[in-house]
Design goal:
The protein has one helix at 2-44; strands spanning 51-58, 68-76, 87-94, 101-103, 116-122, 134-135, 140-145. It is an alpha/beta fold. It folds into 2 domains: 1-45; 51-145, OB fold (Dihydrolipoamide Acetyltransferase, E2P), CATH 2.40.50. The chain has a 7-stranded mixed β-sheet, with no helix packed on it. It is rod-shaped. It starts with a helix and ends with a strand.
Length: 149
């Protein structure tokens, strides 16, 4: 009887060892599949530096340091590109860094309602589904306030 229990114990140990080694192989295969899928996703994405130039009309005055800018009729400058969608109506541009704003007139210090601006956004900007939509500050790359004509 002692020999039977010894054989059963050895067989169970072998089965457990084989089962554990298969899990490690499956996990390493899953990890390599995950890594290759992430690599292919990354290669399909556009570079982060791609930007699109838009024009807009400022809807409301903006004080220095205010984190948002209300604009109307955000329209791409290059109308020939299908990837550039215009946004009709009001849009709020969230501004995270005051350094992205430049003025055509060096004496200007604020943005006034009715002024025309050029806005550089990332190629596919993140926007909320609220009314009016808000474009995330990380996607607002630069703003240039143009002189009144």
């Amino acid at each position: 009887m002692k020999k039977v229990w010894m054989v059963i114990a050895i067989l169970m140990t072998g089965i457990i060892a084989i089962g554990c080694s298969n899990k490690k192989e499956d996990k390493s295969k899953a990890d390599s599949n995950l890594a290759s899928s992430k690599a292919s996703e990354h290669s399909e994405q556009e570079p982060a530096t791609t930007k699109v130039n838009y024009t807009a009309i400022v809807k409301a005055d903006r004080a220095v340091g205010e984190s948002r800018l209300w604009v109307e009729e955000l329209t791409p400058i290059d109308e020939g590109s299908e990837e550039q969608a215009s946004m009709s109506g009001e849009v709020i541009l969230l501004i995270t860094d005051e350094e992205i704003i430049s003025y055509e007139d060096p004496a200007a210090e604020t943005i006034q309602a009715g002024q025309k601006i050029e806005v550089w956004l990332s190629k596919f900007p993140m926007a909320t589904r609220s009314l009016p939509p808000q474009i995330a500050g990380k996607d607002v790359l630069a703003i240039r306030v143009l002189n009144a004509e």
